[in-house]
UniProtKB/TrEMBL annotation:
Protein name: Diguanylate cyclase
Annotated signal peptide: none
First-to-last residue of the parent protein present: 416 to 693 of 696
Span of domain EAL: 23-276
Lineage: Bacteria, Bacillati, Bacillota, Bacilli, Bacillales
Amino acid sequence: HKAKLSRQHIEIYSHSDRDPAELFSLESDLRIAVANKDFVLYYQPKVNIQNGSVDSVEALIRWMHPERGVVSPGDFIPLAEETGLIIKLGEIALELACQQAKAWQDEGHPLRVAVNVSAMQFHQEDFVEQVLDKLRQTGLPPKLLELEITESVVMGDVERVKDTMTHLSQLGISISIDDFGTGYSSLQYLNLFPIQTLKIDRSFVQSIESRTSQAPIVSTIIAMAQTLGLEVIAEGVETEEQVDFLWKHGCNLVQGFIYFRPMPAEQVISKIIALPAL
Ligand code: C2E
Ligand code: CA
Ligand code: CA
Ligand code: CA
């Protein structure tokens, strides 16, 4: 536990010339930030390359640190998970996403927003109620909410996971499996659970043109999704070659720097409208 903590500090504070005692303040900073809700969501569009439209957006959390500026989730999500702060953080993300999606809908831009949900958050007994509360509080229709869940969620009590997913799905919320292919979990659940979409992990996508190509894994996931009647999206797409490969194999949804980087909410609508035909 301690070793992990100090690794976190080194990553985030290594370039600091501040007092060494402050190296130990990341956890307390994070606690304060969670209490103050010092977070914003950035949004990255998911693009349909068949018709050049934006399918939906993914909400990605950012910590607005008073001195450090914008801190990426890679620098604090692991610590949040170790300390249990991820539960409160997940609630903040869900709330911000629902508020924003509702605001867009009210402005005449109904855009589905996908929120990342950690395993710990999903396994909370009252998770469905939490989600329902946010929908009620904001007035967001459930069909404008998607939850991205990693394979690690699925490991554990299969029946309970299935109940939770079924409940969410019956409400009209869509569920996607994030980082698909990295989790070593059973493929059995794909048929058992009400899942709409598989997200092919960036590590596979980025290897497409490399010498140690995992392209066959990408094409296999696409084919499998099609066979099972699931949507499939590739994340972390950066190059034309990757897009060509995905297109050729029938994956029509693409998310990545090649089209959009995650951006503040204020920029989303204008950038989407300005999207040139692909
Ligand atoms: P993820 O869910 O797999 O999200 C994709 C990550 O890849 C994002 O990093 C995104 O900015 C980045 N990305 C998108 N396109 C490209 C690309 O073309 N190239 C490259 N190199 N990267 C790309 P980000 O925003 O730093 O988030 C990292 C991870 O933090 C996420 O991975 C997710 O696991 C977690 N995370 C983010 N927001 C939340 C949240 O609200 N709740 C929870 N529980 N986890 C979150
Ligand atoms: Ca995600
Ligand atoms: Ca990923
Ligand atoms: Ca992830």
